[in-house]
Amino acid sequence: QVQVAESGGGLVQPGGSLRLSCAASGIMFNVYIMNWYRETPGHQRELVADITSDGTTKYADSVKGRFTISRDNTKNTVYLQMNNLNPEDSAVYYCNAQHSYSPSLIHWGQGTQVTVSS
């Protein structure tokens, strides 16, 4: 019944932009911290950005100044605006919803592929 679904990935040229979306259903969205991760073959899944219920944000050093995480609680959706993309940003991007009061309770999406290439 709980679903987390990413969308918005695709192929983009270096320097370009993409906006990822992650829609959650079956949960009390306002109770969850929302996180964006990314993963490439042979690399551990990396936390890219997160946002709390009140809108507090954090970013990995590698994306600071380029990526922006936001959420729309009326739509149960979190976004990741990615600007100035470079090939090192290529990865499968995953969204998860992490319960604020039971942080081990995490719901993962299936991921969306982002490829940055000329």
Walk me through what this model shows.
- The chain is mainly beta and 118 residues long.
- The chain has no helices and eleven strands.
- It has strands spanning 3-7, 10-12, 18-25, 32-39, 46-51, 57-59, 67-72, 77-82, 91-99, 106-108, 112-116.
- Strand 7 (67-72) and strand 8 form a beta hairpin.
Alpha-carbon Rg, integer: 14 Å
Average pLDDT, rounded to a whole number, is 97
User: Which residues sit in consecutive blocks of at least 5 with pLDDT less than 50?
Assistant: none
Global geometry? globular
Give the helix proportion (percent range): under 10%
Total number of helices? 0
Distance between the termini: 40 Å
Order of helices and strands: EEEEEEEEEEE
Key structural traits:
118 residues, four-stranded antiparallel β-sheet, mainly beta, seven-stranded mixed β-sheet, single chain, 11 strands
Outline of the structure:
The protein has 118 residues and is mainly beta.
Task: Please describe the topology of this protein.
Layout: E1 3-7, E2 10-12, E3 18-25, E4 32-39, E5 46-51, E6 57-59, E7 67-72, E8 77-82, E9 91-99, E10 106-108, E11 112-116
Parallel strand pairs: 2-11
Antiparallel strand pairs: 1-3, 3-8, 4-5, 4-9, 5-6, 7-8, 9-10, 9-11
